[in-house]
Amino acid sequence: MVHLSSLLLKKYHGGHVVIRLALAGHKQANRPFYRIVAAYNKRARDGRYIEQLGSYDPLPNIYNEKLVSFNFDRLKYWIGCGAHPTKPVAKLLGLAGFFPLHPMTITEAERQRVQTEKTETNTDMCQVTLDNTQVTI
Amino acid sequence: MFQVIGGRSVPAARLLAPRSAVLVEAVRGRKSRTDPVAKSKEGRIKVPPPVDPVEMVVLKERYTEYQLIMSALRLEFKEEVLRKKYEEETGSQAEERVRQEAEEHRSLMAWNNEENLRMLKARILRVQQEAEEAQRKKIEAAIQREQEQQEFIKEKEREILQLQEEVKNFITVENLDQRIEEALDNPKNYNFAIDKEGRVVKQTALQ
């Protein structure tokens, strides 16, 4: 028989609490679902957590929405106790309005915009050249 | 390094062209530290993604601002947590709660004491009654025993008297000859006949 108490009462040396996304164990291929969770740093990603503070569904639903939920009261408590949020959690919270908007979100958006503008101009140029060639022909 | 698996979860392409004898699946960390570099990657120099200096400056500014706001938020939340704890322990509510709990405790203790007194009285009564019952029973038992003794004595006396009366009819050494003579002179016939209806007939053939 496995001695369960030692697995549950692990003592970590110099660990801290993090707020991160943990994959909820639905055991379905190609259908992820994340729990926003306060856990110790050294624990496995999907292992035992201290408290669940929300959820995040990365796949959009029938109305093209990605649903996120937060328990702001407990979030404030954990951040006040010194928990570190991870990058994706910080980005989500920034989009939600609880944190300031993450710099990388803004830069990614700017890059995306530049990219789309470039592709638009390219297609316009292609269209223009096509018309020109047609005209010449 | 390689993980050997059964045939079910392997895609078709790998099924059709396995070079090795057993079916193998790619697992993270394929190569161990002693495996050589692949031929296609021999002269490869890993280069980090290019950095746009303008964007980098802007990004650094944004990051400083973000970190400022984040640290301020953290301090705010910490203060809130501490304040909540403080109020929980030594707030206005806490005193009232303590007072109410003390009052409740006192009232409950008073009720408990009353209950104890009541039970004590009931118990005393019960014990008294039981003692009286026991006394009475003892007395009754004693009387009964006395009576039985008396009856026993009377019974014995009656037997003695009866025996004394029977002594007169006993056969002793002096009466022996006389009684033998008497018995021989008076033959007694104990024979009788009886039929199914219960009629007794004492007259029989003597001998």
From TrEMBL, chain A:
* InterPro entries xref list: Ribosomal_bS16 (IPR000307), Ribosomal_bS16_dom_sf (IPR023803)
Subcellular location per UniProt equals:
Mitochondrion
Gene Ontology cellular-component annotations: mitochondrial inner membrane; mitochondrial small ribosomal subunit
Biological processes, Gene Ontology terms: mitochondrial translation
PANTHER family xrefs: 30S RIBOSOMAL PROTEIN S16 (PTHR12919), SMALL RIBOSOMAL SUBUNIT PROTEIN BS16M (PTHR12919:SF20)
**Membership in a protein family:** Belongs to the bacterial ribosomal protein bS16 family.
Q: What is this protein called?
A: Small ribosomal subunit protein bS16m
Q: Which organism is it from?
A: Amphilophus citrinellus (Midas cichlid)
TrEMBL record, chain B:
Q: Which PANTHER family match?
A: 28S RIBOSOMAL PROTEIN S26, MITOCHONDRIAL, SMALL RIBOSOMAL SUBUNIT PROTEIN MS26
Where is coiled-coil annotated? 117-173
Which organism encodes this protein?
A: Amphilophus citrinellus
**Organism phylogeny:** Eukaryota, Metazoa, Chordata, Craniata, Vertebrata
Q: What is one Pfam family matched by this protein?
A: MRP-S26
Query: Mind telling me which GO cellular component terms the entry cites?
Result: mitochondrial small ribosomal subunit
Name the major location: mitochondrion
List the InterPro entries: Ribosomal_mS26 (IPR026140)
| Protein's name in the database | Small ribosomal subunit protein mS26
Family of the protein in this entry = Belongs to the mitochondrion-specific ribosomal protein mS26 family.
